[in-house]
Amino acid sequence: MGRPRKFDEHEVLVAARRVFNETGFHGTSVDDLSRATGLSKGSLYGAFGDKDALFQRVLEDYCAGADADAAARLDGPDDEALDRLRAWLRMPEGDIDRLGCLLAKATAELAWENEAVATRSLATFETLFDSCRQLVEQAQRAGHVDPAADAEVLGGLIVTTHRGIEALAKAGVDTKTLNRIADAAIDNIALAARAGRSVRSA
Amino acid sequence: MGRPRKFDEHEVLVAARRVFNETGFHGTSVDDLSRATGLSKGSLYGAFGDKDALFQRVLEDYCAGADADAAARLDGPDDEALDRLRAWLRMPEGDIDRLGCLLAKATAELAWENEAVATRSLATFETLFDSCRQLVEQAQRAGHVDPAADAEVLGGLIVTTHRGIEALAKAGVDTKTLNRIADAAIDNIALAARAGRSVRSA
DNA sequence: AAGGGTTCTGAACATGCGGTCCAATATACA
DNA sequence: TGTATATTGGACCGCATGTTCAGAACCCTT
Question: The whole model's pTM is what?
Answer without folding.
Answer: 0.90
